[in-house]
Amino acid sequence: MTLPPRSEILDVVSSISLSAPVLARSAQRGALRRRLRAAADAALTPLSLDDVLDGFHPLRSGADLRGKIVAVQAETADAATIVIKPGRDWRGHEPGQYLQVGVDVDGVRLWRSYSLTHGPRRDGHISITVKAIPDGVVSNHLVHRARAGEMIHLQQAAGDFVLPLPVPDRLLLVTAGSGVTPVIGMLRNLFSRSVAPTTDIVLLHVNQTEPDSIFKDELRALGASSRITLVEHFDDRDGVLDLARLESLVPDIAARTSYACGPSGLLDALEQWYDERGLALTTERFRTALLADAGEGGTVTFADGIVLEADGATPILDAAEAAGVLMPSGCRMGICMGCVLPMKEGAIRDLRNGEVTVVVPGEAGPGGVKIQTCISAAAGDCHLDH
């Protein structure tokens, strides 16, 4: 984007600044402000005043929420913590929540969701920790190519994978791989307090190998200081975690408030284990595993008129992103239900179990039927409200 000469910009901004006292005294200040805005936009055509201000102050209040990367800190060979200075309208978060990040890669803005991993910071910065996944355009960009000074787009924090207040007396946290990211935010927040929490915390942390273990030094330090009881499990050393060992690893597991975050295979098994014993478990789920069997495809039509052809084997989320459609999604990084969209009519197949959902116009209510685009493929023509 090419800005007008600085002198012209300053003239426009100055004229608005000088008019401020008049606006404040005038009962017509709202209308005058709109006229001044229109005049400024006309003077800066084809840009707008917001375009100009974005060039000088993109993090200002009232602008689309963005953030400036201030540091990229390596955690492992394929994971990094991205420290971000958020715009002034950032409203904060609860530990355990996630953040939607919009990154421009090769001229296309792609949105992904990542858990916030920082505790309280005096500088007001926030952080996410990203693990680069195979063929992950955004994750590989952030881990391997992002640099300080890069601007990214943000949404406000969301998600309900948070600890209750007051914090329970006994807590079990089960994490696998980068599923530790929301939990590290919880722990950093708890142990940043002037009065240390009295909660008895057990963390069962599962990784394929020790070098892949994100935050292992910090977690081991918490364990060494007796702030948590850390149980590390490495698949290459210990084999796949056998849930039959849970009660020996955590003898009082039935008395603990339990949280788990990780890939769907582990969480499916954990949920079954807890259900069989009548125990409660709060989870944050990675993208669901899909079945190979598919079926017929069809067209997917979006509310803005975009129409794409989709086969019966490809999730609608993947098919749409491959066609350049910007889709909501947190599925790849453990944020379940971030990809949900309402289907107004048509048919989709659940790739986990083959079940087909059909929506007939007028029979599903004005809001349609919500579907998860990450596990749903077209089973005929369908229309999504996006």
Structure description:
- This protein has helices at 6-25, 29-43, 49-56, 137-145, 180-190, 216-224, 235-238, 246-249, 264-276, 316-322, and strands at residues 66-76, 79-86, 98-105, 108-115, 126-131, 151-154, 170-176, 200-207, 229-234, 257-262, 282-285, 298-302, 307-310, 340-350, 356-359, 369-372, 376-384.
- It is an alpha/beta fold and 386 residues long.
- It has four domains: 6-56; 66-154, Elongation Factor Tu (Ef-tu), domain 3, CATH 2.40.30.10; 170-284, 3-Layer(aba) Sandwich (Rossmann fold), CATH 3.40.50; 298-384, Beta-grasp domain (Ubiquitin-like (UB roll), Roll).
- The chain has a six-stranded antiparallel beta sheet with strand order 4-3-6-1-2-5. Strands 12, 13, 14, 15, 16 and 17 form a six-stranded mixed beta sheet that branches. A five-stranded parallel beta sheet has the order 9-8-7-10-11, sandwiched between helices.
- Helix 1 packs antiparallel against helix 2.
- The chain is globular, with a radius of gyration of 24 Å.
